[in-house]
UniProtKB/TrEMBL annotation:
The chain crosses the membrane at residues 55-74. It is a single-pass membrane protein. InterPro entries: Cyt_P450, Cyt_P450_CS, Cyt_P450_E_grp-I, Cyt_P450_sf. Pfam families: p450 (PF00067). Residues 35-45 have a biased composition (Pro residues). Heme binds at C491. This is Cytochrome P450 90A1. CDD domains: CYP90-like. The lineage of its organism: Eukaryota, Viridiplantae, Streptophyta, Embryophyta, Tracheophyta.
Length: 546
């Protein structure tokens, strides 16, 4: 799914979250202007012809024919008439367009040239290409990106392939549109946009500490795995108020298979092919949804038994979790299935992104010792004032300005979501171009974040760049910094993700020292992460108290 970093066309998937970035310490000293594309994943793999039923073969042939026709039309239109108004570009080879070039770029440690070269060749930050069976306009232009984000739901709409939509469920926030989307988005923001609430902050702190308590005084851990545990348990708590235990563990086992499905090839009739990753993901989805349904049903029954709590007084009482928000919202009109899909999509949405953000922040800091030293000092100062054992409070979070610079810079450099896909609902006029109704558009955040015109030494991890006053506001205002998107689909978890990572860094640097257990590197296919999950050797600090 585009948000998760997957871009699917027909039966293919391409990761959007692709973010390539050389590790800061090894970043090239030169800083070519960088523009970034989405991340490729495997192209649609045709079903094995030998064993395929005739119906499938006929469908496959029809698809191929449609793709060929699409390509021919795109190629013709780029040469004459109205298509002269399309942003410049090339449709590449018949059928595959430029898909293979895109994929191979993202399989290297430096995928930037896919966009850079085209921007340079066409002299335009907006260009046309043809990937995954579809003509697609790429934007590396912050002004156009802003327009696209703001126009969501009107001139453009987000578009997900059916394979992703099936895993998410029809009532997922990511799939709803129009007034229903606005209502659900506001509700989500109300819940997730309040990490300042004392119970939530205390809970994040407790969860992080509980995970770290599981680490031996001297041990090797794969940081990404640990970060994922924290993120999953935290989201479950936010949704249904269940603490880590056998229930969360059994749901997590299925959930991991579901997540794998987003990055797999959705073979036709996958529900009949349980040995494929996508087939297993479909099964896992049923189990995760079933577990959530059981909890939600029980809560609905409890509510019926205890009577509705819709009075004025109750509105003022902070809801204990997302299910309670849903049960109370809109006169309690959400159906069980709507609530299940909604919770499931929240569980999916922040998992990979927040965990990789935590891991990469530690990796970049490890490779930039001066930044790590400054960060440690900031957190030790907080501890000096509070004493060793006190839980973190909101005022402590507010005393972490350098930590926020580290998080901003990790987001800028890592590009966990390298951009978002939209589809034009109408002809779109931008500069001298017209992007026709129905056309797919990719707004690349990464291309902007790594562009030397906007950021000096754009490919170097430099958290100090965010220290200057108002830098963040002006970068966000000009759409030069959009790691969480913008407009009506602005990520509702943006504040929560920051708080989780801040608390995690606080507890890590004040209780442990560490070094890389083995060399690890960033990979960008099918998503941005480190190849080995960043194994580190941890040493508990002698003065740390648990
Ligand atoms: C580093 C962490 C994160 C990053 C970089 C990130 C990034 C994004 C981006 C770029 C979008 C916009 C997608 C679009 O416009 O199509 C988005 C949407 C969304 N995010 Fe996040 N996100 C993060 C964490 C979270 C967390 C922790 C949650 C919730 C627990 C969350 C929930 C969502 C949801 C539900 C949407 C869809 C909103 C809608 O369609 O209205 N995200 N996120």
């Amino acid at each position: 799914m585009p948000y998760l970093g997957l871009f699917g066309v027909k039966d293919s998937l391409i990761s959007l979250t692709q973010s390539h970035f050389p590790t800061p310490a090894r970043a090239p000293s030169t800083d070519p202007s960088t523009r970034s594309p989405p991340t490729p994943t495997p192209t649609p793999t045709p079903m094995d012809a030998s064993g395929a039923p005739p119906l499938i073969l006929a469908a496959a042939a029809a698809l191929l024919l449609a793709a060929a026709l699409g390509w021919l039309l795109a190629a013709r239109s780029s040469k004459r008439g109205s298509a002269r108004l399309l942003p410049p570009g090339s449709t590449g080879l018949p059928l595959v367009g430029e898909t293979l070039r895109l994929i191979s770029a993202y399989k290297t440690p430096n995928p930037e040239p896919f966009i850079d070269d085209r921007v340079a060749r066409h002299g335009s930050g907006v260009f046309t290409t043809h990937v995954f069976g579809e003509r697609t306009v790429f934007s590396a232009d912050p002004a156009f990106n802003r327009l696209l984000l703001a126009a969501e739901g009107r001139a453009v709409g987000c578009s997900y392939p059916s394979s992703i939509a099936t895993l998410l469920g029809p009532h997922s926030l990511l799939l709803t549109r129009g007034p229903a989307h606005r209502r659900l988005h506001t509700l989500t923001l109300t819940r997730l946009g309040r990490p300042a609430s004392p119970p939530l902050l205390a809970h994040i702190d407790r969860l992080v500490l509980a995970t770290m308590r599981g680490w031996e005084p001297a041990s090797t851990v794969r940081l990404l795995d640990e970060a994922k545990k924290i993120t999953f348990n935290l989201t479950v708590k936010q949704l249904v108020s269940i603490d880590p235990g056998p229930w969360t563990e059994s749901v997590r086992r299925e959930y991991v298979k579901l997540i794998d499905g987003f990055f797999s090839i959705p073979f036709p009739f996958a529900h009949l092919l349980p040995f494929t990753t996508y087939g297993q993901a479909l099964k896992a989805r049923k189990k995760v949804a079933g577990a959530l349904r059981e909890v939600i049903r029980k809560r609905m029954d409890d509510k019926l038994e205890n009577g509705c709590a819709n009075g004025k007084e109750d509105d003022k009482i902070e809801k204990k979790d997302m299910v309670e928000e849903l049960l109370e919202a809109e006169g309690g009109s959400f159906s069980e299935e709507e609530m299940v899909d909604f919770c499931l999509s929240l569980l999916v949405a922040g998992y990979e992104t927040t965990s990789v953000l935590m891991t990469l922040a530690v990796k970049f800091l490890t490779e930039t010792p001066t930044a790590l030293a400054q960060l440690k000092e900031e957190h030790e100062n907080i501890r000096d004032v509070k004493g060793k054992n006190q839980p973190l409070e909101w005022s402590d979070f507010k005393s972490m300005p350098f930590t926020q610079c580290v998080i901003n810079e990790t987001l800028r450099v890592a590009n966990l979501i390298s951009g978002v896909f939209r589809r034009a609902n109408t002809d779109i006029h931008f500069k001298d171009y017209v992007i026709p109704k129905g056309c797919k558009i990719f707004a690349s955040f990464r291309a902007v974040h790594l562009n030397t015109e906007h950021y000096e030494n754009a490919r170097t991890f430099d958290p100090w760049r965010w220290q200057s006053k108002n830098k963040l506001q002006s970068a966000v205002g000009a759409s030069l910094f959009t790691p969480f998107g913008g407009g009506p689909r602005l990520c509702p978890g943006y504040e929560l993700a920051r708080v989780v990572v801040s608390v995690f860094l606080h507890r890590l640097v004040t209780r442990f020292s560490w070094e890389e257990a083995e060399e690890d590197r960033l990979v960008f296919f099918p998503t941005t992460r480190t190849l080995k999950g960043y194994p580190i050797n941890l040493q508990r600090r002698p003065d740390s108290v648990f």
